[in-house]
Amino acid sequence: MRLRSLFLPLLALLPFAAPPAQPVTRVVSGYYTVGWEEQSFRPCGQRAKWWVSNPGPMMGAYADLVEGDWGTIFVTVRVDLTDEGNWGHLGGYRRAMAVTELLDARVPSPDRDDCSRVRET
Questions:
Q1: How far apart are the first and last CA of the chain?
Q2: 101 CB-near residues (< 8 Å, 6+ apart)
Q3: pTM of this prediction?
Q4: Is residue 117's pLDDT more than 80?
Q5: Average per-residue pLDDT for the chain
Q6: 26 and 43 in contact (C-beta within 8 Å)?
């Protein structure tokens, strides 16, 4: 009995669970925001924000378009998107994404929702 109680916790360490799902590649448009302990993306048509685990080529455009360290730009990007879970700072985001290609970047329009422009084109 004593020997079994020693080995049972070790069984929990063995990889019985299925491997994590591979990220899904997707093209998305939305708002990329960098702030205090935040690097998030709010896709068009959704209220939820995603954690940006790797901004990749988006960082160059961000640096060119934003004055200072913090701000928001509107982008269209190709990303690897995770399944739903707890991602990012304190697990506060439902998904995480890694940018693999930047397709478009601009300063958000002060007069109109940039997402409506994406739907029109």
A1: 69
A2: 56, 57, 77, 78
A3: 0.78
A4: no
A5: 83
A6: no
Which residues share a beta bridge with 74? 31, 106
Residue 3 has a CB neighbour count (10 Å cut-off) of 7
Which candidate, 85, 79, 95, places its Cα nearest to that of 24? 79
DSSP SS3 for 29: strand
SS3 119: helix
Cα separation, 91 vs 85, whole angstroms: 8
Query: Cα 88 to the chain's mean position, in Å?
Result: 8
- Which of 2.40.50, 3.30.70, 3.30.450, 1.10.10 is the CATH number of 21-111? 2.40.50
* Residue 37: burial class (beta carbons within 10 Å; 0-12, 13-18, 19+): exposed
SS3 of the chain: helix, strand, coil, percent, to 5: 25, 40, 40
Secondary structure class of 61 (helix, strand, coil):
helix
